Amino acid sequence: MHLLDEIESVMKEGFIDISPETRYVFKADTTKFSGIPEIVVNVKLESEVSSVLAIASKHNISVTARGTGTGMSGGAVPIKGGILLNFENMNRIKSIDRKKKLAFVEPGVVTDRLRAEASEYGLFYPPDPSSSAVSSLGGNFAENAGGLHCVKYGVTSRYVKGFKFVDSTGDIISCGSAYEKTYFPGSFVMIGSEGTLGIVTEIALELIDKPPVHDTYITYHNDLMSAVSTSIRISNSPVMPSVMELIDKEALLAAREYSDIFLPENTEAVLIIKTDSQYLPDLIERSLILEKILSSMKVPEWNRAENTAEEESFWDLRKAVSSSIKRIAPDKMNEDVTVPVTSLFELIEYTRSVSEKYGLRIVVYGHSGDGNLHVNILYDRKNDTELNNARLASEDIFKKSVVLGGNITGEHGIGLSKKSFLSIQLSKNEISFMKKIKKAFDPDNILNPDKIFNMSKG
Ligand SMILES: Cc1cc2nc3c(=O)[nH]c(=O)nc-3n(C[C@H](O)[C@H](O)[C@H](O)COP(=O)(O)OP(=O)(O)OC[C@H]3O[C@@H](n4cnc5c(N)ncnc54)[C@H](O)[C@@H]3O)c2cc1C
Hints:
alpha+beta; Uridine Diphospho-n-acetylenolpyruvylglucosamine Reductase, domain 2; Uridine Diphospho-n-acetylenolpyruvylglucosamine Reductase, domain 3; 4 domains; 458 residues; Alpha-Beta Plaits; binds flavin-adenine dinucleotide; 7-stranded antiparallel β-sheet; 5-stranded antiparallel β-sheet
C-alpha cells in the first residue's frame, strides 16, 4: 500500500493534509529555521499516533511532533521533512480530580486553558511560560517549560505525575504514580527531551490549591543595575516572591505600546513582583518585608496594583516584551541563559561588555527571580559582520553563564538553535551518554532527528 493510503487508513478522527499551503504553514516555529514536512498528520487519538509511528518506523520516515509552534529553539521544525504530527486538535482536558488535585490532559491543550479550568475548581497549575495563552502542554512537557510563577512553584517537571507516550515503534507506554505505576528507570528523561525520545499522548499534572490572596507590584529604577541588585536582595529575603520579572529600558520602550502603563521619566528598568499566600496575615507580612527592602534599596518609585485591571496592565507589559522586541531590530537572538541568582549582576555587566565588544545592542529581560534571563542580541542577518558578531556574542554569553555556574538554556531547549553550543555545557562523555539514551529509545533515529545533536550514521 502507498504510504499516504496506509496513514489514511489508520485515521479515525484525525486527518492528513499534503497541500503545499499546509505543509508551508508547518515549516517553522518562532525561530528562523525551516523545513517543509512531506505529510501533515492532524491527530486526535492516541491510537492514531501509535499507528502512524508504527508506519513511520516500518518505512524509516522521520516524525516531528508539534504543539502550537511557539518554540524558541527550532524543536518543532521538521528539518528532515517526513511526517509532522500536529497535536492542535488532540486537546481534551480529560478530567480534573478536585480531591486528588490531578488533571489528565491531552498534549494539545493550551496551557492557559488548563489554568483557567483548574481555577474553577479552586486549583492552580503554576507553570506559566509567557506564551501560556498559546503554548501547548505537550510542548511545555517536551521543553520542560518554565515561566513567571516558577520562581516559587517550580517548572513543568515538578507537576508531572505520570504520562503516556508512544515509542519509536508505535508501542503505547504509561508510567508514573497517576497511572498506578512506578517510573521505570529512565522514563523521567522523557520530560524535556524535545520530542526526540517518544511522543507524549497524555499527561497527568498535579494541581495545587490556588493561593487566595496576592499582591502585585511594579518597581521603577533609574538604572538597570539597581533593579538587578534589588532583585537579588529580594531573592535572598523571606519574601519568597511567586513572580519576579526584570525588564530593561529598551524592552520597556518596545513593549509599552501594548500597555497603558505609566512609566516615570528616567526609568531604566522595572521589576514586576508578585507575592502570594494561602493566608492573609502571611501575605501582609511578606508584602511588608518587600516594601521595606524597596525603601532600603532606595527604589525611587513603586506601585502596588489596586485592582485587577491595574495588575493586568503589568502582565500585559511583561507578556508583550518578547514579540515587541522583534519590531526594534531586523533580527534578534533570544538566549535564555540561567545563572545562580547571586551571579545576575555579573552576567548583566558581562553582557554590557559583550555589547560594546561587538557593537551590537543587547536587550535584557526575564525571570530574574530564578536567574533565568532573556538576553536578546539585536542584529541584521543581511549584514554578514553583524550576523557573525551576534553568533560570537551568544557564544561568549553562553560561556560566561556556564563559568558562573549556570546553563546555556533555562527553558527554551537546545533544538536546532543551541546544538552547536552544547559542548560549552556538556563534556564529550556526557553528550555521548545522551546519544546512547537516544539510541536506546529510538534506534533508527526517526523521532525529531538532528535536534539537540546529530546522531552519527551506523
Ligand atoms: C512570546 C513567547 C514567550 C515565551 N516564554 C516562555 C517562557 O516564559 N518559558 C518557557 O519555558 N518558554 C517560553 N517560550 C517558548 C515556548 O512557548 C515553550 O517552549 C513552549 O513550551 C512550547 O510549546 P509549543 O506547544 O509551542 O511547542 P512546539 O514549539 O510546537 O514544540 C516544542 C517542542 O516540543 C515537541 N513536542 C510538541 N508536542 C509534543 C508531543 N506531544 N510529544 C513529544 N514532543 C512534543 C516538539 O517536537 C518540539 O521539540 C516563549 C515563546 C514565545 C513565543
